[in-house]
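Methods: example folding runs. The two proteins below were folded one after another, and each record is reproduced exactly as written to the output file, sequence line first and C-alpha cell line second.
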Amino acid sequence: MIQKFTAFLLLSFFLFCSNGSFAQRYGTAAGLRLGSNDFSRTVGITAQQRILKHVTLEGIIQSDFSRNTTMHLLIEKHKPIISKRFNYYYGLGYSLGWEESNVKNPATMEIVTTYGNNTNGIDLIAGIEMTVLNTTISLDYKPNFNMSGREEFYRGQVGISARTVIVKSKVQDKKRRKKARAKRKKNRTPVFEGLREKFKRN
C-alpha cells in the first residue's frame, strides 16, 4: 500500500510540474486518515488549519473500533519542496485516549493485556504532502511518547491522509488583509474626528 501511495505521489508531483493550474494551496482542509502500527490499524478524521505563514494546527481523531481510540492536537511547521504546494512538515503535540496496554511478566513469560486504559502523551510528527485537484495527500510518521496509562513508553504510527481543501490560502489571506485594513481604519478614525472637530471650532 505504501509503495502504491508513493507512486501516486510522484506521479502527482510530475503532473504539477507540467501544469501549475493542477495544484492549490490551502488554508483549511479536512478529510480521512489511515494509521498503522504494530498494535492496531486505525481510521480517523483529520483537519488542518493554517494559523501563521507555513504553520498549521492539525486535529486527529482515530480509532480501530475495538481497543484503541485516540485524539491528537499538533502544531506543524511546513516548508516547501520546489513549490509551496509540495511540502515537508514536522511538529509536535499532545494526545489522549483509551488504549490497550501490554505488561510482560518475566517470571511466567506471559503478556497480560488490559483494555480501556486512559492514556495521555506527547506526539512528534514528520511527513510530506502535496495539494492536487483541490485535495491534499500526505504521508507521515507520528511517534507517541506515553506519559500515563500505558505500559509501552513509545509507539510509532505511519499515516496516510486525504483532505479536501475547504478554504484556499488566497481566500484566507484576502479575509485576513481585509480584517487588518478595517482594524487600521477603526484605529485612525478617532484621530481624524478629533482633527475635524478642532478645525470646526477654529
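Second run, written to the same file directly after the first:
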Amino acid sequence: MFVDSNPPLLHHYGALLHHPSNDSIPQCHENHITEECQLPLIDLDGLKSLDRLECSRAICRASSEWGFFQVVNHGISPELIKKMRREQMKLFSVPFEKKQTSGLLNNSYRYGTPTATHPTQFSWSEAFHIPVTKISEQACYGEFTSLREVMEEFAAAMSKLAKVLATVLVNNLGNQKEDLEDICESSSCFLRLNRYPACPFSPEMFGLVPHTDSDFLTILCQDQVGGLQLMKDSKWVAVKPNPDALIVNIGDLFQAWSNDVYKSVEHKVMANEKTERYSIAYFLCPSYDSLIGSCSSRESSIYRKFTFGEYRNQIQQDVKKLGHKVGLSRFLL
C-alpha cells in the first residue's frame, strides 16, 4: 500500500490556483530574475589570526550592504552536516498523517500557508520549527532516536557560531547600551527543518513567500538545489549555492537594534519543478518579553521601543488581516 509523505499542497492550493479571479502563477511575481549572485564570502579563520580586524569589517560591511553573506571555516564539520541531512530526510519521508498528528518535535510540524487566499501567498513547503529548549527532550522524537543526538550537536554548533557572529556585529557598533547576549539566550532560539517538495505547477511557485526574518540573526544550511533569492538594488537576484558555505542573514531585530546600520533584507525561496530541496535554519531570538531598542546612546532611535512578543503579535495580526507581514515600518517613530 502506497502512503504519501507529501503534505496535501496540491489539494489545498489546486482550487485557488484555478479560480477564475486569480491570475496565472507567473504573473503573480512582479519582480523577475535578472542575474545570479555570489554572496560575499567570508573565511572565519580570519577571526583567529592577525586578519581578525579585516575579517570583522567584512562581516559588518556585508551586513550593511547586503544583509546577507556566506561563511566558510565556520566550525561545523561536513560530517555533522551530512548526518543532520540524512536524519532530516528520514524524518520528512514518513507518512504525512504521522508528521501532522504524532506530536513529533514538540508538535512543531507545519506545511503550506493555511491563511493563503491568493497564489502570491502560497508557500510550497513543509517544516518542523522547534524551540532549542525542546531538542533535548526524548519524548519529542518517538522512534527517531538517532535524530535527537544529531540535532543536539547541530543546534549547539549553530548556537556557538551565531554568538561569534553576533559579537562581531555588536562590537562594530561601539558604545552600545546593553549586551546582545543579555537578551539572546539559547533557550529562546529555534531550529527549523525545511523541505520544499517538487512542485508540479510551475518553477515560478514560491517555496517560501517573500519575507524578512523576525529574529536577530539567521544561519542557513542548505543543499545544492538552489532556489534562495534576495532583494538587492531593488531587484531579485538568485543565490548561487556553495557546498562549503553556510548562509547568514540579518533579521528585523538586528536592523532595529543597530538603528538601521545592518539591513534585514527581503528574501524568498522558489519551488523547483522537478527536484525537492532541503535546508536547516537556526534563528537567534530573544525572549518574548525582551525590549528591543537602539543600541546607541549617542543617536536618536529610528524605531520606538518594543518587545519581541509585541512584534510577533503585530506580525500575526497583519498576516491575518492583510495576508502579508508588514514588519519594522509599523514601529517607526
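Comment on the second run: The longest helix spans residues 145-173.
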